[in-house]
Amino acid sequence: MATEAGKQIGYLNFNYERDASKKRNIFISYMYVKSEYRRKGIGSKMLKFLLAKKKNITWINFWTGKEIEKNKGTNIYIKNGFQKLAYQEDYYEKGVGTTLFVKRIK
Ligand SMILES: CC(C)(COP(=O)(O)OP(=O)(O)OC[C@H]1O[C@@H](n2cnc3c(N)ncnc32)[C@H](O)[C@@H]1OP(=O)(O)O)[C@@H](O)C(=O)NCCC(=O)NCCS
User: Fold this and answer.
1) CA 22 to ligand 1 center in whole angstroms
2) Which CATH number does the domain housing residue 7 bear?
3) How many independent structural domains does the chain possess?
4) Range in 42-46, 52-56, 71-75 the model is least confident about
5) Which ligand 1 atom is nearest residue 77's CA?
6) For 29-41, how does the pLDDT look when each residue is reduced to its tens digit (9 = 90+)?
7) Does residue 105 line the site of ligand 1, with CB under 6 A?
8) SS3 per-residue string spanning the chain
9) Closest residue CA from atom 48 of ligand 1
10) Residue-range definition of the domain harbouring residue 11
């Protein structure tokens, strides 16, 4: 969760469960920053904070949400070292797909 003066201004939800190999990897389910606080680096900071906290992971991945696909804001993930691995067109509605981003940690 990101806060300013005690107020929540953003959050990042993720799963961090052990898989069949007994390793943990991160799957982001959603990331959000209040609209008046966007483009100030808060989303990037939350991603960096998560990666700094969670050690011994091999990869982090997620499928993008509808809003970021509509806004064409997915550059945030490229800027933070993620690779675009797949794209599913017309996923949310006609013309709005979803993208699989992955970052290999080690
Ligand atoms: C996605 C989100 C969390 C990004 O948070 P943020 O704090 O604005 O992110 P940052 O300030 O770290 O942005 C870093 C870079 O991402 C890109 N970016 C972010 N939002 C963008 C937008 N709306 N349009 C184009 N590029 C965008 C830019 O390259 C930006 O760098 P710049 O400001 O130097 O150009 C925020 O826009 C949000 O909550 N959106 C609504 C919910 C959502 O779509 N969540 C993502 C689900 S996958």
Assistant:
1) 33
2) 3.40.630.30
3) 1
4) 52-56
5) 16
6) 999 999 999 999 9
7) no
8) CEEECCEEEEEEEEECCECCCCCECEEEEEEEECHHHCCCCHHHHHHHHHHHHCCCCCEEEEECCHHHHHHCCCHHHHHCCCEEEEEEEEEEECCEEEEEEEEECC
9) 64
10) 2-104
Q: Where do we find the tokens 């990897």?
A: 25
44 CB within 6 A, ligand 1? yes
pLDDT above 90: residue 4 = no
Question: How far is Cα of residue 101 from the mean position of the Cα atoms in its chain?
Answer: 8
Q: Of 1, 33, 79, which is best to mutate to test ligand 1, by the most ligand atoms within 8 angstroms of its C-beta?
A: 33
Count of residues making up the chain: 106
Q: Which atom of ligand 1 is nearest to the CA of 62?
A: 48
